[in-house]
From TrEMBL:
Record organism: Oryzicola mucosus
Domain Peptidase S9A N-terminal: 15-421
Residue stretches making up the Peptidase S9 prolyl oligopeptidase catalytic domain: 481-698
Region (Disordered): 1-23
Keywords tagged on the record: Hydrolase, Protease, Serine protease
UniProt-recorded Gene Ontology molecular function terms: serine-type endopeptidase activity
Protein's name according to its UniProt entry: S9 family peptidase
Lineage, opening ranks: Bacteria, Pseudomonadati, Pseudomonadota, Alphaproteobacteria, Hyphomicrobiales
Coiled-coil annotated residue ranges, if any: none
Family per record: Belongs to the peptidase S9A family.
Transmembrane portions of the chain: none
An example Gene Ontology biological process: proteolysis
Amino acid sequence: MTRSPYFPETAAPRTRQEPVSDTRHGITRVDEYAWLRAENWQEVFRDPTTLDPAIRSHLEEENRYQSAMMADTEALQKALFDEMKGRIKEDDSSVPMKDGPFAYGSSYVIGGQHPRYFRIPRDGGAEEVVFDGDKESQGKPYFQLGGVDHSSDHTRLLWAYDDRGSEFYTLKIRDIASGADAEDVIADTGGSGIWNADDSGFFYTRLDANHRPSKIFYHRLGSSPADDRLVYEESDAGFFTNVGGTRDNRWIMIGINDHETSEYRILPSDDPEAEPKLVAARENGLQYDLEEGGDVFFILTNADGAKDFKIVTAPTDSPERANWKELVPHEPGRLILSVLGFKDFMVRLERKEGLPRIVIHERATGTEHHIDFDEEAYSLGLGGSYEYDTDVIRFSYSSMTTPAQLFDYNMRSRERTLLKTQEVPSGHDPEHYVTRRLMAPAPDGELVPLSLVHHRDTPLDGSAPCLLYGYGSYGSAIPASFNTNCLSLVDRGFVYAIAHIRGGKDKGYAWYENGKRAAKTNTFTDFIACAHHLVGERYTSHDRIVAQGGSAGGMLMGAVANMAPEAFGGIIAEVPFVDVLTTMLDDTLPLTPPEWPEWGNPIISEADYKTIAAYSPYDNVRAVDYPPILAVAGLTDPRVTYWEPAKWAARLRERTAGSNPVLFKINMESGHAGASGRFSRLEEIALNYAFALKVTGKSA
């Protein structure tokens, strides 16, 4: 691979080396860039100004280098930003959802970065703004809203915000009539709360110093947060806690889970002083989720070998596992994703043969029907309802060529009502685009789904550039949904493709299992196979493929760059989880103990250590000719810490046998989700797309 001719000969930052050795299971590793990890990282998450000046200086030098290398794309980035912004209806508004005497919704104003929340009388009338996100964000370099939830008596809002990017959310209580916030402010929360039955207080999750949601508290309005009642505390650092409610407002549900095991405790919403009652004790590998159903709970579970999940019921007064009764049996290959309970119906979202489906179950008769769609590939979102006693649910539909549509669906009459179609102000004609679903053969014979879209006029002779996106972890399936941003590439002749690789649940739970732990390498070889298949089918050529992934998908980018650098013309790694082994060995980091079921625990297991060491991108950088690489990160990211991509960029430059540039951009005022605000985020996407265009020789 020769050096890309599209970048100037600018000297990259030199990162000083201070070797630190670590020996585990008789194996010694040396990390020459460990010093980039701030010793006071917990403090930095809360106050970025406390970052070691030497580290800050290095990161700022990285930003200057990245800016210099991409300086010739500034006009292109501006054009891309304007195009993507032009596809957003700036004064967009949601369709209000009914709840008692009101219907609640959200909207934006022209030029606004953050949503406003409003309500109208249930059957129509004047709009009342109850919360203005733009107003709250004023004067803050970073601002991210958490939950904004109204009380059942419709007099108050419980709202949360993060102004550092570190995901430590502050909770406040607002009086809707006056617009004033109460004095009882609660810091270091998970970002939302659940009102009790009479709205006299709420339950919330508090994060500890290591950013772990380990405690559930109850706060009574008007009292000091210091006096809040500790409802539940999780002692196992490998489990996270969360708290939720039910539409019928009868129960508070405390969830405890890692990636393989779950447990619930419940207490009546009208008795916040009650002790939580255990539903089913945690068993390694047993997963279950609770949903209200009046006198029963609907329980989605993998119990008794139901790999793709089944639905059981249990009486609310005795929900222990001995009383679980099967309602919807396990069907191999049909993955049940979620369940919603209503007075007369139960609704489930499932995926079968790679496509989502909404199924309506009538509780009185047991009869079922599903909602039909015409396109061969599409995405569904099940929105549900605020209300429990209703016949109407809400869902969204889109495909890679069809803008999102929002429907109300009457479960009794089976009538669907189109409420809204996503508006693309700058214009969009679906007939100009072609979407395809391909199956790429993996090395072991599995067929990996590929969803793609291209302009109808794009030549399919191998000359088209391609952006190939992948994730492949935690069971997350990437939907084939409408994406206005990618049209800026597609309209410039790109093929935009999504690789539905193992590690996700795109083809059922086994698809996830066969892409984790000891089988993790399948995720990487699946992605490489997708690249080969696109080339073999003449959609593109290897030097025209730009691979993109974020977070665990950024780890994918690092792995495929090491394994098959010749298969790609460029790599975009957003908040990349690339120092996997070091992170999984550090049990002080926020996500490490809960992540062991996903990746393995290399602290106690030599086998897990060797498995992770064999693919961890940072540990496997080698003297090969890498394609141009762009890594993007945020300083206050608690999920993928900034030092992972910082170290990775340094080691890539040190060890590579080639001369292609490695660019590292770090947002010094954001975390895992990137810049806050709907338009600020577009600036980051514009940089990514400008890089993709640059490395494939397109400059406009």
